[in-house]
Amino acid sequence: MQFTRLIAVRHGETAWNVDTRIQGHLDIPLNETGLWQAGRVAQALAGEDIQAIYASDLARASQTAAHVAEAKGMPLVHEIGLRERAFGEFQGQTFQDIQHRWPDESVLWRKRDPHFAPPGGGESLVDFGVRILSAVDRLAQQHQGQQILLVAHGGVMDVLYRAATRLDVQAPRSWHLGNAAINRLLWTPDGLTLVGWADTSHLDQGPRDETTA
Predict the structure, then answer these.
(1) Cα–Cα distance for residue pair 109/14, rounded to 1 Å
(2) What pLDDT is attached to residue 196?
(3) pLDDT along the chain (213 residues), means of 10
(4) C-beta of residue 172 within 8 angstroms of C-beta of residue 157
(5) Residue 206's pLDDT is what?
(6) Contact predicate 199/181, CB 8 Å
(7) Domains in the chain, start-ordered, CATH in brackets?
(8) Can you tell me whether residue 52 is helix, strand or coil?
């Protein structure tokens, strides 16, 4: 059977998500909310028939996927091809920092210039997209007729959505890329098809604290 069902999940929240700080390839762990979200993802997927779990090797994705893998008693396979886009010198900077320190480059970045690569070893959107879709094609081909889980990053989810809906890399974004959202796609040799997007119903009950325990 030449199809593979994909469940694609963005990692849980990190402190840098809250600060609007670019993470890229820097290894930032989940914060308390992100750990709670990862647990909720695991609960939501507990009844799913999943044959393999793959995650970016960066901690925020790996930690999220580990909750699912532990709950299902399955191995977690790290896939470097699912890493977030490399942002070079933009990594560690807030959106405001980037606009202030690199005003010209910031314009190219915000306009989604497909060939712009952030200074200091960043990836262009074109190169990033090729990397992600090549990794997904390779993994999907290994699991034809099955369903697999991919846990990665916001930029990765964006690439998958655009590929599945045939949207140009520069098209304005009108879809959500929420932390710990569950997205569903179908892979065939002809490409990706969107099945469901940005399901966050498992996160409707907020984290418990001293006032809600």
Answers:
(1) 22
(2) 98
(3) 95 97 98 98 98 98 98 98 98 97 97 98 98 98 98 98 97 96 98 98 72 34
(4) no
(5) 66
(6) yes
(7) 4-203 (3.40.50.1240)
(8) strand
Tell me the C-alpha distance between 136 and 17, whole Å: 25
Of 33, 22, 18, 95, residue with least CA distance to 63: 33
Q: How many residues appear in the chain?
A: 213
- Determine the residue type at 74: M
Alpha-carbon span 72 to 79, nearest angstrom: 19
The Cα 169–Cα 122 span in angstroms is 17
pLDDT in tens, 17-54: 999 999 999 999 999 999 999 999 999 999 999 999 99
Task: Quickly list DSSP for 70-116.
Answer: HHHT--EEE-GGGPPPP-GGGTT-BHHHHHHH-HHHHHHHHTT-TT-
Contact 188, 3 (CB under 8 A): yes
Annotated active-site positions, please? 11, 84
Report how many helices (DSSP H) and strands (DSSP E) the chain contains, helices first: 7, 6
Res 210: pLDDT: 39
Angle of helix 154-165 relative to helix 125-141, nearest 10 degrees, comes to 80
CB count within 10 Å of CB 107 equals 12
Rounded-to-integer distance, Cα 23 and Cα 91, Å: 5
Residue 191: its pLDDT value, please? 97
Q: Which two tokens stand for residue 154?
A: 């916001």
Element housing 180 (H / E): none
